[in-house]
Amino acid sequence: MNFNKYDVVVIGAGFSGAVMAERFASQQNKRVLVLEQRPHIAGNCYDKIDTNGVMIHQYGPHLFHTRHDDVWDYLSQFTEWHPYEHKVLAHIDGKLSPVPFNLNSLYAFYPEQEAIALESLLIKRYGENAKIPILELKETDEPALQALAEFIYNKLFVNYTCKQWGCKPEDIAPAVTARVPVVLNRDDRYFHDKYQAIPKAGYSKLIENMLSHPNIQVKLATDAKNYLQLDLASKQVLFEGDVFAGQLVFTGMLDQLLDYAKGELPYRSLQFQFEQHDKEYFQPATTVNYPNDEEFTRITEFKHILSQKLNGTTIVKEFPQDYDRHDPKCNIPYYPIFNEQNQQAYEAYADVIGDFDNVIAIGRLAQYKYFNMDDAVKNALNCFSKPEGG
Ligand code: UDP
Hints:
This protein has helices spanning 15-28, 69-76, 103-109, 112-126, 134-137, 143-165, 174-178, 203-210, 254-257, 340-354, 373-385, and strands at 8-11, 32-35, 47-49, 55-57, 65-66, 81-83, 88-92, 95-99, 131-132, 182-183, 195-199, 216-219, 228-231, 236-239, 242-243, 247-250, 267-277, 287-289, 298-301, 313-322, 335-336, 359-361. It is of the alpha+beta class. Helix 1 runs parallel beside helix 11 (373-385). The mean pLDDT is 97. Uridine-5'-diphosphate binds at residues 90, 99, 156-157, 160-161, 164, 176-177, 179-180, 289, 291.
């Protein structure tokens, strides 16, 4: 491959890579090569119609939401939208109740008089519509609220988090469980952002449209590691041994890129079990969480998302796993594991990459961050508009 005929090489065709490729091509008329190791684009957002006719998300449910006008306007150039507000229920003590835990959940679990008393205590202390991370609610000095916090922690958080992360909520960055706070209103939606919608023709199509610029060439099933080398002494990027003078955008794992020179960064993986059922609906909401009584964390039924009218249905169960790069059953790094120690280990790699003038390391993996899809897009748009990014 003649890499030097390109101005920019992007490694990875997920959201971060696609935004960077699209921006360099359309805003600076650069010639861009995108290398993707999988046989398809769109990273973990990849979706497709299965044999049941259902639009499934191959790497687990992806529900788009954002409060950022610029992200919404940018993506709207490449897709039409299907309005969709995500709803999640939790299967607890044989009942289905809304997640995040809100006032409706409170009344589902407590006798009415007790729920009324707790509601008024909560509102007095935190205010209407407040969103309280569970670890913060647990700190309360009010005994009745302490008991409520214990209840929510025990029924909704502790076992789910142990399954998902292999540790308790206290042993992972507080921001992780704060994603699903206790909410003091009766709004049963999972997200509260201004924009909530799914690309009408799917995420794969959205990313295909982003990458369809004539300046962009995409090579699938191509492992960049077979071509790319970073010369740590000269701080030069080499492709097939030749110095690459253009811009490298890398969206993969930095530990892998740097041959694990400073050890392996921890990640969490997942196994997905897809099932097709010969019935109209499997469950009453898109996602049902099983904090306590199954090995999987949640079941998602995809046909709810695009309101597809079909006789059959397809669901997926998520089984969290330790990541192991040598084991094909769990060698996809879905989530960095967020704690201070891992962040420091990551920074050591980021420092090495920071010394390369023509390398941008960007995205959930390369920045070791818990990005939602809109965060990834916003982050890439910001990176591009910084002087050194664009
Ligand atoms: N969580 C939980 N119980 C739930 C839902 C979430 O304990 O019913 C915790 C868990 O630690 C999870 C985190 O909150 O990893 C964030 O949940 P979210 O749904 O945002 O996770 P994602 O969809 O990104 O996997």
